[in-house]
Design brief:
alpha+beta; 2 domains; eight-stranded mixed β-sheet; about 25% helix; globular; binds zinc ion
């Protein structure tokens, strides 16, 4: 059988180890040490710094809490909660000609999704062929598609393809100061199971770009959209697919030779038109004549 890719190389050394800070095993309470510590921290969050310090120094918790000794420790622990996705992960580019652009390092966020231990059972690193008892192919996840099999050949043997999915939309910001709108970009990876990606509280979609929209009627709307997108996704654009790839951790505790690859774009029709840079009314995927019946042409 041909090599389907997705090989593991050596033990994880980066993000994966963060959750194993206090033991060899994954600590599901990270950055706290135990469930009890989380319960007490929730109680402390309603109190003042002085109250917490006195409570801990007098041993009123019966010296059971292990994660912190002072109120300041709690603040430090909480800053680790985001797993590197805190507010300061935003890069602000005020010099952009289309307005202030806010964006995040997408590779850092893809690594987060790829190494998050709670996704361990749901992440897949190689394509599969699945068929029912009558031999008919089943397509329900991205890894089951022919597309994944086809692009494997373009990457070095054993490579793990991290399929990046983007979703863009416009959001309304204000009513009383010129009806301000902004363009948002969210990102996730297709290696994760689709039903997990659909659960909002699993936080698989990460917000990675924000820029104010040009005013209605502006001539450079498409240019603004693509130019700011190019900045936000520059890592992805410049990754050499024939190169050595990126050694990223997976939640199984291994390193993989990863190649982040843009795979899908989710958005309403106007955004599909803008991404594909076709005229309104055209199909963004094929050359069907305008207003042709639904379905893509085969040429
Ligand atoms: Zn079409």
């Amino acid at each position: 059988m041909e090599n389907a890719g997705g090989n593991a190389y050596g033990k994880a050394t980066r993000l994966y180890t963060k959750h194993c800070k206090y033991s060899e095993q994954w600590n599901p309470w990270h950055p706290f040490r135990s469930a009890l510590d989380i319960q007490l921290a929730q109680l402390f969050s309603q109190q003042t710094i002085t109250w917490i310090d006195q409570h801990l120094s007098r041993g009123l918790d019966n010296f059971t809490i292990q994660s912190l000794q002072l109120a300041d420790d709690l603040r430090n622990i909480l800053s680790e909660l985001d797993f590197g996705l805190s507010d300061d992960s935003w890069i602000v580019d005020a010099s952009h000609i289309f307005g202030t652009l806010y964006y995040r390092d997408i590779f850092k966020h893809i690594q987060f999704l790829l190494a998050h231990l709670s996704f361990e059972a749901h992440l897949k690193f190689e394509p599969v062929h699945l068929a029912n008892s009558e031999g008919h192919r089943i397509y329900s996840e991205m890894i089951m598609g022919d597309w994944w099999w086809n692009i494997e050949d373009q990457f070095p043997a054993g490579a793990t393809i991290v399929t990046v999915m983007c979703a863009s939309d416009k959001t309304h910001l204000t009513n009383f100061s010129d009806d301000q709108h902004a363009w948002l970009l969210h990102l996730t990876i297709g290696n994760n199971r689709k039903d997990i990606c659909q659960i909002p509280k699993r936080c698989t979609w990460i917000f990675v770009r924000l820029i104010p929209c040009p005013t209605n009627g502006a001539k450079n709307i498409d240019e603004a959209w693509h130019s700011t997108l190019g900045t936000a996704l520059s890592h992805l654009r410049h990754l050499v697919i024939t190169g050595p790839g990126l050694n990223w951790d997976c939640p199984g505790g291994f390193q993989r030779q990863c190649y982040a690859h843009l795979a899908a774009w989710s958005g309403y029709y106007p955004y599909q038109v803008m991404v594909a840079q076709v005229s309104y009314g055209s199909c963004p995927m094929c050359e069907s004549p305008k207003c042709a019946p639904m379905g893509h042409s085969t040429f």
